[in-house]
Structure formats: structure tokens, C-alpha cells
């Protein structure tokens, strides 16, 4: 059990969390049974940077069952659950993660992960491992056969590397698979963000004006669930197509400067930088609540808010009050980090079952292609359609749902241009 984790945490409690998640992840369970028999990852060293909680632990153990030597870190300073990390270390996974670390400690833990693993495969969440392998540990990049990325933020960073011709190894765009963005981003984020807000604030959403900043797949999910809880939803966007889509769904659409004056609760889901800034804070109501559901804590300009405030006070767990010179108080949840993971348990297990199945099968594909003498070139690669369909079919089987198949005549008709 080498690594850096909180040894004082209750490993037995963490094990129970992992078992609960495992029970509700049947697709990953079926993959684990096959991996245990076939050992498709034998000899591989897998570095993981994911939100280190129970569902992630199940994925790490599935890869371990497939023969991989697994090393894991958190992908956010506030999303690691120490009891789960301790339980995972007991199970033989090298763990470099603790909850509540500083930015410098967080980076050091990722570097320790890479040094201990010297990875042949990796799973990233937000692109931090990839960044370090290109910026500070490029000596290890040559040994990486490939990896997988599951966030919009991470994909933005990977595309920038690819555009510059600097991507050193192949990366699979798990984030863009249909079985990921249609379910994880929409239904997973939608439910888990609302869960994080409610657990953190203990307030009602019904009747409040709920501003969703960004209407991508995650924003769609948050808006849908907020409306379901009785909130009056406002959407802000920079993409005209998404803005029209939000309008057609029945949401009010307006610029952030206007939304700032009417919102009771704001959630940023853009993956961008300073979507809410100083000019917006000046227009907000007394008591307005701000939360972030994007990967990094840069979507709300907290430095500007601190400078503008006469007092900053932690008023309850994961709630910070910023008192303004004019007497107003604005509240920020979970230090502007991912509210669904810093303030709750993240996406439901049934949702992550599908996303993590894509991760496991993508790593198996990368390893198999490399062993067969067909290594993928350094580039961004889509998840193969066969993997996407396999996960969908496995999920349907676990739900007891059957679907139709096209007849030979129907397939022939669809194939004819005339």
C-alpha cells in the first residue's frame, strides 16, 4: 500500500461504499468478469486521474482484474473521498490522493502518480496527466501507448495540443461517445448538480430564478432538472444555435449581464474562463448563490469577488459568504469547484456504469491494437462505434429491454442509393 493518502480514514466505510456502487454498475461488472478470465491488460501500467470516489474505485478494480498495474490520483482537490482512497489502497492499487489538498500538493500527487506508474496507458479527467506528460515529464510520454479522456474541458486541451502538432500519443475521446455525452453529461450532471446544491444549501429550488450559464449537454441536464424542481430557468449562451435550442425548450434566454440582476441561483457549466465576473457581481441580488459544475474552478472569477468583498466568511460547510460594501452578501458553493462532487457524491452509479465501461473497453482496444502491431498514431481518436454499441447493448440487457433488428430486406433497402 504505497502512495499518499489519508491513512486515518475508515477503509471499511470506503469498502462498503465501493460495494454499493459495484452492485449498481452491472455493465462494468460483466466487463470485470471477462477481464478476470482473459487478462487483456496483463503487463500494462495504467495511470488514472479521476474524481476518486466509489464509482471510480470500481473502475480501477476492473482494470486491475484485467491484469493491469493501477496507480490513481484525484482529478480535483475537493472530490477525493478519503475512506474510498484508503480502501482502494488496501486492495492493492497505488493511491496518490487526499481530500482538501492545496494546488501545489495536488500537482505533486499527480507527478508522484506518474513517477510510480511510468504508464503505458492512462485515463484522464480534465487533461492534467496529459499536460504533465507534455510539460514536465515528457521523458515518460514515449512509453504511453495511449489514453482516454472523458471531459469536455480535457477535450478542449487535447484539441489545442493536436492543433499545435504536439500530442505525443493517441488519446481516445470518450467524452464524445454517444453513450457518454447523451447520458453522463445530460442525466448524470443534471441530477448530481441539483443533488450537490440541495445537500450544500438545504434550500428549496421551487420558485427561484435559476440561471444556467452554458447550454451544452451538461447545461441541458442542469436546466431540465432545475425546471423539474419548480425553478424558473434562465439560460445564458455565446453560441447562437444553442441559444435558439434553449429558447425552443421554453427557457428564457438572455445575456449574462441581464441574468445577473434577476437570478437567485447561478450554475456555470461552460468549461470556459470567467463566465461570471466582476461586472456581474455588481448587479446580483443580496443572497444570490453561485455554484460551478465545470471541471476547473475558473468559471466564476473568485479573485475579483474576493477583492470586491469587505468580508469573506465560511457560514456552513461548503458555503462561503462574500459581503459587499453596499451590504449585499453573495454566496459561493464548494469554493467554486465542481459542486456535484465537492458537495455530494457525483453522478449516479448507473450513469457512470456506462461511461466507465467505455473507458475500460477503450483501454483494452488501445492495448490490443498495440500488441497486434497496429499502434494508433498520436492523435485524437473517436471511440469505435462497435464499443459504443456494445456498451449500449449491454446496458439494455441489464435493464431487461429488447429492441428490434432490421431485416435483410430493410438493410438492403437502406444500402441502395436509388
Automatic annotation (TrEMBL):
It catalyses: S-adenosyl-L-homocysteine + H2O = L-homocysteine + adenosine. GO terms for biological process: L-homocysteine biosynthetic process; one-carbon metabolic process; S-adenosylmethionine cycle. Pathway: Amino-acid biosynthesis; L-homocysteine biosynthesis; L-homocysteine from S-adenosyl-L-homocysteine: step 1/1. Residues 185-346 form the S-adenosyl-L-homocysteine hydrolase NAD binding domain. The keyword Metal-binding does not apply. It is found in: Cytoplasm. May play a key role in the regulation of the intracellular concentration of adenosylhomocysteine. GO terms for molecular function: adenosylhomocysteinase activity. Substrate binds at residues 125, 150, 180, 184. Keywords: Cytoplasm, Hydrolase, NAD, One-carbon metabolism. This is Adenosylhomocysteinase. HAMAP family: AdoHcyase (MF_00563). Belongs to the adenosylhomocysteinase family. NCBIfam families: ahcY (TIGR00936), PRK05476.2-3 (NF004005). It is an enzyme of class 3 (hydrolase). Its cofactor is NAD(+). NAD(+) binds at residues 151-153, 185, 214-221, 237, 293-295, 340, 347. InterPro entries: Adenosylhomocyst_ase-like_sf, Adenosylhomocysteinase-like, Ado_hCys_hydrolase_NAD-bd, NAD(P)-bd_dom_sf, S-Ado-L-homoCys_hydrolase_CS. It comes from the Bacteria. Binds 1 NAD(+) per subunit. It holds the Pfam family AdoHcyase.
Amino acid at each position: 500500500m504505497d502512495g499518499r493518502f489519508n491513512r486515518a480514514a475508515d477503509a471499511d466505510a470506503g469498502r462498503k461504499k465501493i460495494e454499493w456502487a459495484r452492485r449498481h454498475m452491472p455493465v462494468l461488472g460483466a466487463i470485470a468478469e471477462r477481464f478476470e478470465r482473459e487478462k487483456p491488460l496483463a503487463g500494462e501500467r495504467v495511470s488514472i486521474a479521476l474524481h476518486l470516489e466509489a464509482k471510480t474505485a470500481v473502475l480501477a478494480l476492473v482494470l486491475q482484474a484485467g491484469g493491469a498495474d493501477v496507480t490513481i490520483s484525484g482529478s480535483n482537490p475537493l472530490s477525493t473521498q478519503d475512506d474510498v482512497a484508503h480502501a482502494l489502497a488496501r486492495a492493492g492499487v497505488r493511491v496518490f490522493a487526499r481530500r482538501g489538498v492545496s494546488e501545489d500538493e495536488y500537482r505533486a500527487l499527480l507527478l508522484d502518480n506518474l513517477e510510480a506508474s511510468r504508464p503505458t496507458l492512462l485515463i484522464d479527467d480534465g487533461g492534467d496527466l496529459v499536460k504533465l506528460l507534455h510539460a514536465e515529464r515528457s521523458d515518460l510520454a514515449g512509453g504511453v501507448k495511449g489514453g482516454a479522456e472523458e471531459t469536455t474541458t480535457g477535450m478542449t486541451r487535447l484539441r489545442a495540443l493536436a492543433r499545435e502538432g504536439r500530442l505525443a500519443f493517441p488519446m481516445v475521446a470518450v467524452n464524445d461517445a454517444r453513450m457518454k455525452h447523451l447520458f453522463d453529461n445530460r442525466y448524470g450532471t443534471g441530477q448530481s448538480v441539483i443533488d450537490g446544491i440541495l445537500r450544500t444549501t438545504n434550500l428549496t429550488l421551487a420558485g427561484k430564478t435559476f440561471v444556467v450559464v452554458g447550454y451544452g449537454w451538461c447545461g441541458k441536464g442542469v436546466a431540465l432538472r432545475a425546471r423539474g424542481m419548480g425553478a424558473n430557468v434562465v439560460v445564458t449562451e455565446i453560441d447562437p444555435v444553442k441559444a435558439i435550442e434553449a429558447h425552443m425548450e421554453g427557457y428564457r434566454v438572455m445575456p449574462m449581464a441581464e441574468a445577473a440582476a434577476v437570478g437567485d441561483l447561478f450554475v456555470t457549466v461552460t468549461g470556459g474562463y470567467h463566465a461570471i465576473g466582476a461586472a456581474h457581481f455588481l448587479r446580483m441580488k443580496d443572497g444570490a448563490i453561485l455554484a460551478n459544475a465545470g471541471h476547473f474552478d475558473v468559471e466564476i472569477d473568485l479573485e475579483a469577488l474576493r477583492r470586491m468583498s469587505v468580508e469573506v466568511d465560511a457560514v456552513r460547510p461548503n458555503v462561503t459568504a462574500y459581503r459587499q460594501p453596499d451590504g449585499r452578501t453573495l454566496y459561493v458553493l464548494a469554493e467554486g469547484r465542481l459542486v456535484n462532487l465537492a458537495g455530494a457524491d457525483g453522478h449516479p452509479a448507473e450513469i457512470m456504469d456506462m461511461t466507465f465501461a467505455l473507458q475500460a473497453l477503450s483501454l483494452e482496444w488501445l492495448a490490443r491494437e498495440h500488441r497486434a502491431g497496429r499502434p494508433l498514431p498520436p492523435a485524437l481518436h473517436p471511440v469505435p462505434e462497435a464499443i459504443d454499441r456494445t456498451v449500449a447493448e449491454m446496458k439494455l440487457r441489464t435493464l431487461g429491454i429488447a429492441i428490434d433488428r432490421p431485416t435483410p430486406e430493410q438493410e438492403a433497402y437502406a444500402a441502395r442509393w436509388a
